[in-house]
Design brief:
The complex is a heterodimer. By secondary structure, chain A is an alpha+beta fold. Chain A is built from eleven helices and 14 strands. In chain A, the strands form four sheets. Chain A has a five-stranded antiparallel beta sheet. In chain B, strand 3 and strand 4 form a beta hairpin. Classes of the chains: A alpha+beta, B alpha+beta.
C-alpha cells in the first residue's frame, strides 16, 4: 500500500519549513508520521508536499522555560511518558498512546496537532491549560489549548503553520488521566478518557480543570464538573457529585464504540477515578 | 531520492521514490524478506524492526526518513548460525504456529529485553501490545520471552509448565 506520489523536503530550520509550506497549495508536516503516513497510505490524504521536520535540530527536547515546561515538536510519546518534569496526567496519557512501537516514533506535538477525537494527550494538554507555540508566515503565535481543538481532526493550525512546541504551565497542584481503551484497559484510542488537574489549599480544592476525550468530536473542557469540585474538601462524596456533572456541558456522540448513554457512564467513571487520583496526589 | 542506511551491518543504498516505505526498502532493496507486511496500517507489528536501537513499524515510515540511520531486522539477530536467545526461546517454547507474526514479535521482545532484562508477565504482555498473533493466543509467546530473559541473564530457564 503506497501513498500517492508527493514531493519530499527535509528543511534544516522551522523558518525554512514554514517557507516551503507557504509555497505549496497542499503541504503537510511530517514529524513521527504515526498519523500522517497511515492516512496517506489509505489515501485519506494525498498532499503534494511533505515537509519532514524530523531533521531540524533542537526540537527533541523537554526544557524549562519561563513559568512552564516546553515540549518540542520532535519529543516522542515515550520521552513524554518518561519525563520527570511533566505532570502525571500528560505522562500517563503519553504512556497509554498507541503501542510501544508507535510511542517510539510518534510525537506528543504531532498527536495534539492531529486532533483525533479519541487521542489521549489532547485531553491532558487541555486539562493542564497548555499553550501551543505556533510558527507561521507571519511569525510566532500562542494558542491556548482551550482554543486549539476545533472539530474532528481539525485544530486551529493554518495549513502553512507548524506546531513547534507545547508549553505546560508550572502551576503546582496535581493531575491524573484515566481511560477505557477500545481494546480494553489502556489499549488503543480512548472510548472515554478524562484528564483532571486540581490545586488544594488548607484542605480544600481551590482550582480544578477537567477535560474529556473520546466521547465527542473533539477534546473538550468539562467546566461544570470542575466547578463543582472547587470549594469542596475533595472527599469521595464530593468527587462523586462533581463527576456526575461531567455531561452537563460536553456534547457526546454515538459511534462504533458506544451509545451516548454508555459514553456518558464511562465519562463519569473515568472523571471520578481521575479526580480521586489527582486529589490524592495534591 | 538517494537513500542510504546500514541494515544488519551492511550499507544499503538506492535511488527510490519519496513514497517508498521503509519496509519495502528493506524487502526489495536490501533483499531481506524476513520483515513481513501484515495489516499495512501500523496495527499488527509484523513489520517491526529496530531503528537506531528502538522498535518501530517499518510499514509506517518512509525510507527517506531512515536515510543515514541503522536498522536491525530479524536476519540480523543470529550470529554465525547461532540463534539469538529470543529466537531460541520461540523455538524451545513453541512461540509460533503459522509464523507470520514471529519476526515482528521477536524484534519487539528484543526491544523489551534491551531496556528491561527481567520483565514480569504483565510487562511482557504490554510490551507486545503492538504485535498481533492470530494463532497462539500469546501464552507461548510470553513463555518464549521468559525463556529468553532467563538465558540472557545467565539463569537456567524454568521448565515449561507442560513438562512440570
Amino acid at each position: 500500500m503506497y501513498p500517492r506520489p508527493f514531493e519530499y523536503l527535509a528543511p534544516g530550520s522551522i523558518d525554512e519549513a514554514v517557507r516551503e509550506l507557504s509555497n505549496s497549495d497542499y503541504g503537510k508536516v511530517l514529524a513521527g508520521g504515526m498519523s500522517l503516513i497511515p492516512m496517506m497510505k489509505l489515501r485519506l490524504l494525498s498532499p503534494e508536499l511533505v515537509v519532514d521536520i524530523g531533521r531540524i535540530p533542537g526540537l527533541d527536547e523537554i526544557v524549562e522555560v519561563a513559568g512552564a515546561t516546553s515540549i518540542g515538536a520532535l519529543v516522542r510519546h515515550a520521552a513524554t511518558a518518561d519525563s520527570p518534569h511533566l505532570p502525571a496526567a500528560l505522562r500517563t496519557a503519553a504512556a497509554w498512546t498507541g503501542d510501544v512501537q508507535v510511542r517510539n516514533r510518534g510525537t506528543t506535538c504531532g498527536a495534539v496537532a492531529h486532533a483525533d477525537m479519541a487521542a489521549d494527550q489532547t485531553a491532558a494538554v487541555l486539562a493542564l491549560d497548555g499553550v501551543m507555540i505556533v510558527s507561521g508566515p507571519r511569525g510566532t503565535r500562542s494558542v491556548a489549548a482551550a482554543d486549539f481543538f476545533v472539530d474532528v481532526l481539525t485544530s486551529a493550525l493554518e495549513p502553512q503553520e507548524v506546531l513547534t512546541s507545547i508549553e505546560i504551565p508550572s502551576r503546582g497542584g496535581a493531575s491524573a488521566y484515566r481511560k477505557l481503551g477500545r481494546r480494553g484497559g489502556h489499549s488503543d484510542y480512548a472510548i472515554a478518557g478524562a484528564a483532571v488537574w486540581v490545586d488544594k489549599a488548607d484542605g480544600h480544592i481551590v482550582s480544578a480543570r477537567v477535560a474529556l476525550t473520546g466521547v465527542g468530536l473533539r477534546a473538550e473542557l468539562a467546566r461544570a464538573a470542575a466547578q463543582a469540585l472547587v470549594g469542596t474538601d475533595g472527599s469521595n462524596a464530593a468527587i462523586a457529585a462533581a463527576a456526575r456533572r461531567v455531561g452537563d456541558d460536553v456534547p457526546m456522540i454515538e459511534d462504533l464504540f458506544g451509545s451516548v448513554e454508555y459514553k456518558a457512564h464511562l465519562a463519569e467513571a473515568m472523571t471520578r477515578r481521575a479526580m480521586q487520583a489527582a486529589v490524592a496526589a495534591a | 531520492m538517494f537513500v542510504s542506511m546500514t541494515i544488519n551491518g551492511s550499507v544499503v543504498s538506492a535511488d527510490v521514490e519519496p513514497r517508498t516505505l521503509l519496509v519495502h526498502f528493506i524487502r526489495e532493496q536490501a533483499g531481506l524478506t524476513g520483515t513481513q507486511i501484515g495489516c499495512d496500517t501500523s496495527s499488527c507489528g509484523a513489520c517491526t524492526v529496530l531503528w537506531d536501537g528502538v522498535t518501530a513499524k517499518s510499514c509506517t515510515a518512509l525510507a527517506v526518513q531512515a536515510d543515514g540511520t541503522t536498522i536491525t531486522t530479524i536476519e540480523g539477530l543470529a550470529v554465525d548460525g547461532a540463534l539469538h536467545p529470543v529466537q531460541e526461546g520461540f523455538w524451545e517454547r513453541h512461540g509460533l504456529q503459522c509464523g507470520y507474526c514471529t519476526p515482528g514479535m521477536i524484534m519487539s521482545a528484543v526491544g523489551l529485553l534491551d531496556g528491561n532484562p527481567d520483565p514480569d508477565e504483565s510487562e511482557i504482555r504490554h510490551a507486545i501490545d503492538g504485535n498481533l498473533c492470530r494463532c497462539t493466543g500469546y501464552h507461548n509467546i510470553v513463555r518464549a520471552v521468559q525463556y529468553a530473559s532467563a538465558r540472557m541473564r545467565g539463569v537456567p530457564p524454568e521448565a515449561p509448565d507442560w513438562e512440570r
